[in-house]
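Notebook entry, structure prediction.
Reason for the run: the old model in the group folder had no record of what sequence produced it. Starting over properly, with the input documented here first.
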Amino acid sequence: MFCVLLVPRLFAGPQQARVPEWVRPGDEVSGEASEDERVIVVSTGTRTEHDAATAPVATEVITREEIVGSGARNVADALEESGSSVQTSTGFNGTSLRLRGLDAEQVLILVDGQRVTGRIGGAIDLRRFNVENVERIEVVQGAGSVLYGADALGGVVNIVTRTPEPGVEVEGRASYASRTTVDASARVAGGGRRWGLSGSGGYHRSDGWDADPSDIGTTGDGFGSWNVGVGARFEPVAPLRLRVSGDYLRRSSSGVDVTSSGAIIDRRNLTETSNTTLRGAWRGANNQLEVVAHHNFFRDQFRQDQRGDDALDQYQPTNDHIGQIGVQLEQVAGHHLVTTGVDLQLEWLETSRVMDEQGSSTIERQRFALFAQDEWSPGSSGRYMLVPAVRVDFDSHFGTYPTGRLALLVRPLEQLMLRVGYGRGYRAPSFRDMYLAFANPGVGYRVSGNPGLRPEQAWTLDLGATWTPTEHLLFGLGVFDNRLRDLITTDVVTQADTDGLQVFGYVNIGTAYTRGVEAKTSVEFLRHFMVTGSYTWLDARDQINDLPLVGRSRHQGALAFEFHQRRWGTRLFARAAAWSPRPYTSDDGDASGQALAPAYATVDARLSQGLLRYLTLFVGAENLLDAGDAEFTLIAPRSFYAGLSVAY
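New structure, fully documented this time:
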């Protein structure tokens, strides 16, 4: 569970809140921040609020200030610029991420603690989440199923949205970049002590790009999107807090493909996404009861049109819904903070590419879960915390599945934090895994789902240490080991069916491991300068074939530099990142069937200057080294941008 733990004075941004006092096990916690210090509050690792610097489960945080300073337009950009060990990748399904070598389908994406749907090829496109209304992004690596259930096998990414605060806030941003890229967004919020309202929206577009001019096909899709969102908070009486939020996104992307036979195909995806959340919390002196109702809808219309023919034409509409209801009770009893809860989830998918045993293209599943966690701080020093947790999930498709985790925080010195964690995670078979029905007679095969699949399993061990010898200096070191079993892979089921097609299906035969070392350091000097460096060594292997897992770099590193003179309103940010060669499957490889994709590096830079108190001008460049190609590294070419932002 190693990641960077943020030092309050060094990293805290202007919009960070204090940790509520009632969640503290005792009043004499050593090292608690003084009243004039602000801390970064996180909740993803335990589902309870903690100071990020002393949370029992390590949580990496990308704050609002860091999002603005890096110039990120969406969550994908923010994760790329964070300098963490997160690895993002771009493909037909958008921009997704890996955590410690585990695939995107094994990482759970949340918005305000609620899961989102809309996976394409097993991945959530992180470009869907624009950042004008994002307060922070929390990343917890390692098995998180004990608190969130299915799919949190490799980790959890929680996108926390902004809450309207007392007063008036007006923000706007507009920029223009290479490839006719336009990015415009705005947010207005205001309210009083017991209420607040907010509204946000944006328009975003960019042309596609091509890394291989030898044919008419494109490498990166062009897109256009717009989004709107609203939020409200109400506190009719002091113990009761109510929050309502909703948003809608419409995004259209298009590209051109060329098949091996030379056919030219125009491809287009039109996606619509909506989220609605109702949240209520009643806070007493030593307890809190929270109830959440959430609905997420994802609609995708995929259209494929072959030029000059209709043999390969396709139209595939997909409707995906998730409805969730959660109840969570937190109680302080002496040196214990006990959290118990119930999660209910309903999901239904409608698409022509799946078919259940009764021949229906509408698939439903229900999940019900009970969980409990105890945060125990022996004594009054606050130097130790033991966090056992257990959860039992009931799934209508594969039955009962228990998970557990044990985390230990030890603080032998004021400046030294040691963490140990061991837990079990799982990924439930997706609707695609169980019920896919796809045939390609022209190539001679079809793929069928397997409703008898078992969940993928992982056992995760994490060891981490964070040392902050001064408030301006941080060192972190971590070791992790993930053991995976029952991985879902494709295999030949029948050599020839009644139509003469070879039949492939999904089976639980995979076993693998990912293990490695992560290191990071941050230093602030001369009041206005900060340098951050990170390095990850990863060993990821398929144990069935005794081969490295494809697409994973053994070495990954990043170095970021920032100059921030608040008095002048000047901010300079630059980041360089590098990845070593990574294996991929190739018919042209050696006897193992693998070859190595080349190493690559990227450099991004941004300069902003405040004007007239409320205005900021900025210019920047992305991928200055022009890394990327059409086969191995799908990175947009070098680009430059400029823009203006206003904040009142």
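Summary: The helical segments are 8-11, 64-70, 75-80, 145-148, 431-435.
The old model has been moved to the deprecated folder.
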